[in-house]
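Take our chain:
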Amino acid sequence: MKVTVAIPGRQLTQVDRATINEGNKAQRHYESAAIRSGDQRIIDTYMQTKVEYMRQPSSDAQSLLDAKGETADGIRAYREPNAQQITLLPSFGEFGDSSMSFPPYHGMELGAGGDATVFKVMAHEHGHVLDPLGGQPHDRERAASDHSNWMQQHAPPRLKRQLRDQ
């Protein structure tokens, strides 16, 4: 399941392409872990969840931010309100940069960037989609991070080594 993009190819910037590449990598890692988990609900939900790249939050997501008096600064990925969709924003691509380091996030150690980090974040966002009690994006962060932490047990061997070394 590749990241979808509504921006015409000739209008994509280097940042756009890097972010889409990291999103696709994260999706491949998550798919592998989902299959290795053997949990049909996780596999089915993964297959039905759209992941889209956008340069800014959707109007629904922006309306929620506005209602809370928040901005999109610092948001790199989120589950779309009332949809089985994950949206990646341009700064998501930074998670793939192994020269960067990221602070813990809702009970999930991020550490250095790279494949392990993009996997953790993608698994976290898929956790939001799977969470039956999560009515709005990012309203149950700990449950989503618990899903990410659990999925790390099912990561492919090369990725498991990276997760362990972080």
